[in-house]
Amino acid sequence: MKIVRKNIEVKIYPTKRDINDNAEKIVSIDKIESNIGIYRFIYDEELEFINHFKSLLIQNGYDDKVKVNDSSCSVILDMLRQEYSFLEKAESSSRQQAQRDLINAFNRYYDSNLKSAYPVLKTKKKTKQYSFRIINNNNNVRITKDKNGYDKIKLAKLGIVKFKTSKEYRKLLQKGSDPNDESVKIKHVTIKNVHGTYHAVFNIEQIHVPEKIIGPKMQMGIDIGCSKLAVTSNGQEIPNLDLKKETDNILRYQKTMSHHKKGSIRHRKAQRLLNKSWQKFLNKRKDHYNKITADIVKNSSFIAVQNENIKSWIKNKQLSHSIQLNAPRKLLEKIEQKCQQENIKFVKVSKFYPSTQICSNCQKRNENLKGLKNLGIRDWDCPHCHTHHDRDRNAAINILNKGLEIVGTTVQ
Question: Cα–Cα distance between 382 and 390 in angstroms, integer?
Fold first, then answer.
């Protein structure tokens, strides 16, 4: 038994009105967009204040490194609340989340191991941040019944809103809304605008009992690729998902939009179709990866992967399109998350380990496979023991052996 964190995403349906026919306060589109705008406003104003303060330090000959913490940002936020009364429209934890995100951005920037860029303004045109977060304090985010007896999401200071989700997720959210049920707790909810539709992402803490391992389960090494999504050490090949139909639709609607004046009826129609195509693309990939990772984790007792530098792969113009479509990093993240939930050992092998160049039979290295120019070699014979190898499966076996070496155990 262990406590795990889980995200539950549901679709919500805000209206154009603030009050329904039963005189209940409901979530409107204007309220959501206003809260998203307030989040960006607080983030940008605090960042501009810090940048101005840093410039004053430089002018007077001081070090420009400023320690950005919660106490200093709270002072700036109090000043903004006194000057701009419209900030009171947002829930208090939503305002505080904007400054917490700014503090985290500066912490990542000052961390030499992460090499993150300096924080930038979240302008409406340039940023993809169309969300805000409400922390669940005193059960102010919960599932409740409206006057007609239907389940609705209650959001602090915003009202109630209609939602749709599966029966399983609905039961979990109902348990999290019950203060007497400690098996599930709602920590916070993020409201976001995704291609013109609105979603609520609940972050919950749940008591999870991992599935008992019955019978022999495999120890598995996984090699991430480009021509194939992944190859496992037992010889299973996971092909790339066919997303041609979705990408063709996206390109077609992008081209249609470019031929019409921005703001016109035809431009807005093409924008809606484009948003729908993007959502289909993302949903298809997400569903496929959930099924793959569930099957892998269910049948494994140990999983090793190589912590590949996928960002550098994207810089290669021959590989970038396939990498961006299939997003192998998301596959690895899902496997790691599900391994943590099921108490399955998950090991990351260093990205510098030459898994494709080492013979899994004699452990000798083949220097002829080194470099980008030899990526086309998919089968090879070991010059030392003359074993014939499939490049991807050989790499997966080496990743498994290296992972077992890291934890200090051996193959079953």
Answer: 11
What is the distance between the alpha carbons of residues 402 and 121, in angstroms, rounded to a whole number?
Answer: 43
Question: And the tokens for 402?
Answer: 């290296």
How close are the terminal C-alpha atoms of the chain, in Å? 26
Length reported for the chain: 412
CA–CA dist 250, 281 (Å, integer)? 9
Helix (H, G, I), strand (E, B) or coil at 157: coil
Categorize the per-residue pLDDT at 127 as very low, low, confident or very high, splitting at 50, 70 and 90: low
pLDDT digits (tens, 9 = 90+) for 39-69: 999 999 999 999 898 888 888 877 777 788 8
Rounded to whole angstroms, the Cα distance separating 186 from 78 reads: 28
Rg (the chain; Cα; Å): 25
CB 389 within 8 A of CB 359: yes
Work out the mean pLDDT of the chain and round it to a whole number: 86
pLDDT for the residue numbered 372: 62
What's the CA dihedral at 285, 288, 289, 290 to 10 degrees? 120
The predicted model scores a pTM of 0.78
DSSP annotation string for 221-251: EEEE-SSEEEEETTS-EEEPP--HHHHHHHH
Please report the domains of the chain, with CATH numbers, ordered by start residue.
2-19+133-208 (no CATH), 32-127 (no CATH), 218-245+289-407 (3.30.420)
Place of tokens 């409901």: 26
| Strand-pair category, 228-232 with 142-145 | unpaired
DSSP 200: E
Reading the block at residue 15, the tokens are 């209206």
Tokens of 105: 């951005």
d(CA 329, CA 321): 14
pLDDT at 129 over 80: no
- Confidence band, pLDDT 50/70/90 cuts, at residue 215: low
How is residue 10 written in tokens? 């549901």
Helix (H, G, I), strand (E, B) or coil at 302: strand
d(CA 108, CA 111): 5
